Amino acid sequence: MDCVSPHVATPKQGAYRLDWLPPWSSERVRVIAWTCYCRDTIYELCYASSRAFIRRTTTQTRTEVHETYPLALHEAGAIWVSLITGQML
Ligand SMILES: [Zn+2]
To answer: Which stretches of the chain score pLDDT less than 50?
Structure first.
């Protein structure tokens, strides 16, 4: 498999834990960025109704989906970078 999307770094010690909620978003969601699908856990930066959030999908034993609270796009973008660089989980 050719990896073209970013991989999430191993979380650093003391990484900030995000609040992961049961999925709340509707279907009218635009996915702006995503991490590589070769991993068991993928993250998507989503945008809907002028709010952004991050969706986490885990497929280790069964598919589990969680989403963050809706945020302003610049906030979600900052969290996205922190997630990918292992500063949040
Ligand atoms: Zn990959």
So the answer is: none
